[in-house]
Amino acid sequence: MEPMIMKTLTLSLNDTLAARLEKQAQQQDISVEEVITNVLETLTESSLQESRVEEGIEYVIAKNRELLQRLA
């Protein structure tokens, strides 16, 4: 198994957002970095699922188009 490569990302957050993230981290008893990582992972998974749904819709439309052409 290949070793995981970690990349560093520097974020500039306004005071309000930084405070919210710190509060959430305290509530969950984790670091702010972990809160941000969790959010990014959720967004990535969500966008992958949306992409799959769009591909599915395009497939159904294409198949319907084929069927309508055969019936015409």
Polypeptide structure, described:
By secondary structure, this protein is an all-alpha fold. Helices cover 75% and strands 0% of the residues. The protein contains 2 helices and no strands. It has helices at 15-28, 32-71. The longest helix has 40 residues, at 32-71. It is elongated.
Number of helices: 2
| Rg of Cα set | 21 Å
Approximately how much helix is present in the residues? over 70%
Q: Low-confidence runs (pLDDT<50, min 5 residues)? A: none
Oligomer: single chain
What's the count of strands? 0
Kindly report the average pLDDT value: 86
- SS-derived structural category: mainly alpha
Q: Give the helices and strands as they follow along the chain.
A: HH
Span of the ends, CA to CA: 55 Å
Topology:
Elements: H1 15-28, H2 32-71
Helix pairs in contact: 1-2
